Amino acid sequence: MWVFTRDGFFSVIQDKHCRNEEIMVRARCRSDLCRLAIKLQGYCDDDSILEIAHADYRYRLKMNKTLWADYLHRQALDINYPNVKNSMMFQDDLTRKEAFFSVWRTLRTWQDKLEEDRAKQSLSGNNTFRGHPGGGRGPGSTGSTGSNRQ
Known about the structure:
Layout: E1 2-5, E2 8-13, E3 22-27, H1 30-41, E4 50-51, E5 59-64, H2 65-77, H3 84-87, H4 94-123
Antiparallel strand pairs: 1-2, 2-3, 3-5, 4-5
């Protein structure tokens, strides 16, 4: 699971080092895991953050799944902004800001490509759109493109 929050970017897995009730939260930046730890337990214990120099995610923190679920629940309840990109707390970190925007831009390009493919399929009379089974935009879709939505 990839998660972008106002605390950072996290990649969450359950690997061979985790028990059934645990997950491994991975990050590219130690301070992201420190912010997460502070939110979860009130302090950051550097010794609990594992650093693997040549791993795809250099920093890792093992935790209970319930603790992670509670964190995500609180993050959802704290949403109070109309625009995700402008709400990120890393506005002064230009490298991070560009990395996050690059993800947004890449996914936006993919969305546009899906729409283009759907339009081509519609013109050819084939109603099966490969981006979503059955040809629609997804469950609960109103048909609006929502071009400025995030």
